[in-house]
Write a structure and sequence with these properties.
The chain has 352 residues and is α+β, with helices and mostly antiparallel strands. The chain has helices at 2-11, 13-23, 53-59, 64-77, 106-132; strands at 35-41, 44-50, 137-151, 172-185, 188-202, 208-211, 217-220, 227-247, 270-292, 295-302, 310-320, 323-330, 344-351. A hairpin with a 2-residue loop joins strand 4 (172-185) and strand 5.
Length: 352
């Protein structure tokens, strides 16, 4: 008899829930007294005593599955609950009010997960929408690392065996960049800000020497017995750049890139920009290294070498997902007019 009652009671779960909702329509009546809700289940009855509307609202917070499960456990554990005629005697089950709704149905779990995912998506979309507003700006820092060289009348100096020809590997370009991104509308924004950059021109021939005077010249040291190990020219600039950018946008929830999006938050598509920069020379020096026996003799000569104080040129940026490249080309010559070789410097590398 107990087993049959358990099965019948569990099957009544859905009916109980529906009846609770229907009871909301007449719950106002319960405010002045105690009303009872009786549900017939086979030969059994389930009775709810409701004193007022507040009790009815509280009842909705209980997990009826849990109530019935506890009733089943009570019936199994205590044989005295069964009267002599084989029926279940009056039994009171106390269930604490649930702090949170227990989700036991797989469909409910899936709905909850879908709701949480949609909520996260809405939060991402709201953050994304805020950044889409025209004039919105954000700030971050970049490190630029690449190689540099220069052209003379459109040709590399090593093609003419010039003493100032440089090695691409070892002629490093380094930039510390403070970037501001300002949204323009649609898929367009502008990147702008200051930077400090270094040209390092490592000469192809370690015996190359830069001679400063009214006109800067380069020679190859004729001392063939000296073990020349390194010769380079370093020039540092402080700059300001402005680069309008186009950015395609994919699903913002899948973004793991670095640009216009908290560096990891919002865009995984293609991006391209073309702009310009202007800079001012703040330092320059030459460095030579000679090995004598087991020792190194380093000579560092800090001078202007008739280098142009002003630097300006064009800048291109291209990127996809988490990788960004830059190309800088100086429109002005590296040395002052008629004071040195007619060289236009350029650099190419990665934005980190």
């Amino acid at each position: 008899m107990i087993t049959q009652n358990k099965v019948t009671t569990l099957l009544a779960l859905r009916l109980i829930t529906i009846m609770i909702l229907l009871a909301s329509s007449w719950s106002a009546k319960a405010q002045n007294g105690t009303d009872s809700l009786i549900i017939n289940v086979g030969k059994s009855q389930i009775i709810f005593l409701v004193r007022d509307k507040e009790d009815l609202e509280t009842l909705k917070n209980y997990d009826l599955n849990q109530v019935l499960e506890k009733l089943s456990l009570e019936l199994d554990a205590d044989s005295t609950l069964t009267s002599g005629n084989g029926t279940v005697s009056d039994t009171t089950i106390v269930v604490e009010e649930a702090e949170e709704e227990l989700v036991t149905d797989n469909r409910q779990v899936e709905d909850l997960e879908h709701w949480e995912e949609r909520e996260r998506s809405d939060e991402d979309e709201d953050r994304y929408s805020r950044r889409r507003r025209r004039g919105y700006s954000r700030h971050f820092f970049n490190l630029e690392l690449g190689t540099n060289n220069y052209l003379e009348d459109g040709e590399f100096p090593d093609e003419n065996n010039e003493p100032y020809a440089v090695r691409p590997w070892g002629s490093w370009y380094v930039g510390l960049v403070s970037v501001n991104q300002t949204y323009l509308g649609g898929s367009f924004l502008i990147e702008w800000g200051p930077s400090v950059t270094w040209y390092n021109f490592k000469f192809e021939d370690d015996a190359a020497r830069i001679i400063d005077g009214d006109e800067t010249t380069f020679i190859l040291d004729p001392d063939t017995e000296t073990n020349f190990e390194k010769s380079k020219l370093t020039v540092a600039y402080v700059n300001f750049s402005v680069v309008p950018m186009f950015m395609s946008r994919k699903d913002i929830r899948r973004n793991r890139s670095r640009r216009f999006y908290d560096k990891k938050d919002e865009d995984s598509g293609f991006r391209f920009g073309l702009g310009g920069y202007v800079g001012y020379r703040i330092d320059s020096y030459s460095k030579t290294v000679i090995r004598e026996g087991g020792d190194k003799d380093k000579d560092r000569d800090k001078d202007s070498f008739n280098l142009s104080s002003l630097r300006y040129g064009l800048r291109a940026q291209i990127g996809f997902s988490g990788t960004d490249l830059f190309i800088n080309y100086d429109l002005n010559e590296l040395f002052n007019d008629n004071r040195g070789p007619k060289l236009n410097a350029f650099s190419i590398g990665l934005i980190l």
